[in-house]
Amino acid sequence: MRIGSGTVHVVGAGLAGLAAVVRLAAEGRRVRLYESARYAGGRCRSYLDAELGCRIDNGNHLLLAGNQAALDYLKRTGALDTLEGPPEAIFPFIDADTGRRWTVRPNRGAFPWWILNAKRRVPRTRAANYLAVLALRRANPSATVVEALDRAEVVFRSLWQPLAVAALNTNADQASAMLFWRILKETLGRGGSACRPLVPRDGLSETFVDPALARLRTNGVEIGFGARLRALQFAPDRVSELVFETGPIGVDRGDSVILAVPAAVAARLVPRLSVPDVYSPIVNAHFRCSVPAGSPYFVGMIGGVAEWVFRKHHGLSVTVSAAGRLVDRPAEELRDLLWRDAALAYCLPAYPLPPARIVKERRATFLASPDQLLRRPGQTTGWQNLLLAGDYVDTGLPAAIEGAIASGFMAAGRVLEIAGAPTRTDPRQRAREVSKMEQERQRALP
Q1: Is the confidence at residue 239, as pLDDT, over 80?
Q2: Are residues 238 and 253 in the same domain?
Q3: Is the pLDDT of residue 438 over 80?
Q4: Between β-strands 101-104 and 91-95, what pairing exists: parallel, antiparallel or unpaired?
Q5: What torsion, rounded to 10 degrees, do the Cα atoms 28, 210, 42, 81 define?
Q6: In this structure, which of 178, 217, 411, 440 has its CB flanked by the most CB atoms within 10 Å?
């Protein structure tokens, strides 16, 4: 039997693992999914917060219409209609120091004529200021965003810096210029049609997790929760056994293994595996309050402690990326600081403070610095039936939803290549489907 033609064992039910299983199951492969926790989704999930008395997301994740892997995943799981967002690419901002508000509005087409319109760009900027971002394309792979762009420019403080920090969860003086260029090329570089913001209508689990699990159960996929992997046993060229706390599971000659666990866990399990080992934290604050109807889905905060404020069913949620300066502060102090910005963003009274929950993720993502990018491994390993998936794997994308899902799809694709079996979906048909994605999203979303 050829390697990869038997059962596929996927370890880890975060978005990378779910994406791999969703694709493999759709191709008729026999798959078993294992997860150490009692729930799926990893850091992308919703839960009931007893203190707030409402259901919240563990963080805030913003999709863009150009996130092809994420939207393909949602299409496969039947969850596209769980997204909502504005009908066009609009990014509202407020300056915390001056109270001035503006909205960046890229035009739909790829040619950026929006930078010629003062009403669509950042105040006190000129079209030439935006063209300077092309310096990222020529930047040395070791360069940071600050080394490639002029941090004294208004457009840097009011657009490039907040976008870089949000996308890479890394301060601009540490973040890779090369990786930030890739993000801009795939979003703003493709026009406003690729930049339209999309958010889960109900919650992260209702969009990314629950529909996937339902689809997998319908396809007969075995899902084992509470299955903590302790070790891998290796033959000379392949993984031969998965050692769980509950006992070993043999990996037959024709089986494959996709390891979709966090980077540190993968490094412990796989000998001589190089992974990013410096992390960047995220701080989130959830406030239970009333928000006026018709308020924007989110607001970018310039010059404040908060960076992005999101409207949710329960009220407002604040995200601070690259939050090393905040993560050790007491929750009460963070509540006061972040509510001040959230109230300003949505024109709410500063007092009394509403009920709040502060969530700190100290190891939210790896630091997207040039040095750390060199430590990202590929999907394949030295063992022919072992593949890697996760937001730390080198997909050319940052450690966010799109990168995690893309890594799962890539690992699944490699399993199918190893098996040498044709997929159920004709490549030309898949290309046509992808080309219709935006039209389908427009029909499915308000």
Answers
A1: yes
A2: yes
A3: no
A4: antiparallel
A5: 90
A6: 411
The residue among 160, 195, 230 that closes a domain is 195
Same structural domain, 22 and 34? yes
Q: In Å, how far from its chain's centre is CA 321?
A: 13
CATH number, domain with residue 404: 3.50.50.60
Residue 400 has pLDDT above 80, yes or no: yes
Short-list 71, 15, 17, 73, CA closest to 415? 17
Distance CA 28, CA 34 (A): 19
pLDDT at residue number 418: 82
C-alpha span between 109 and 94 (Å, rounded)? 26
Residues 387 and 267 grouped into a single domain: yes
Q: Is 129 helix (H, G, I), strand (E, B) or coil?
A: helix
Residue type, 81: D
Sign for the pseudo-dihedral over CA of 35, 278, 308, 360:
positive
Q: Of the residues 177, 195, 213, which one is the last residue of a structural domain?
A: 195
271 and 334 in a single domain? The answer is no
The percent helix, strand, coil of the chain (3-state, each to 5) is 35, 20, 45
Distances (CA, A) of 74 to 54, 82, 141, 262: 25, 9, 33, 22
Tell whether 316 and 355 lie within a shared domain: yes
Burial class (CB in 10 A: 0-12, 13-18, 19+), 264: middle
Of 61, 116, 62, 71, which Cα lies nearest the Cα of 89?
A: 62
- The model's pTM is 0.92
* Euclidean distance between CA atoms 32 and 407, whole angstroms: 18
Domain extent at residue 30: 8-44+203-277+376-444
Q: Is residue 63 one of the residues assigned to a domain? A: no
Whether residues 315 and 345 share a domain: the answer is yes
Rounded to an integer, what distance in angstroms lies between the CA atom of residue 435 and that of residue 430? 9
Residues 27 and 160 in one domain: no
In degrees, rounded to 5, the angle at the alpha carbon of residue 202 between the alpha carbons of residues 197 and 204 is: 75
At a CB cut-off of 8 Å and minimum separation 6, what does 139 contact? 147, 148, 177, 178, 181
Q: Write the DSSP assignment of 346-398 as a string of letters.
A: TT--SSSPPPEEEEEEEEEEE---HHHHTT---SB-SSTTEEE-STTS-SSS-
How many domains would you assign to the chain? 3
In a domain, 243, yes or no: yes
Residue 445: predicted pLDDT: 44
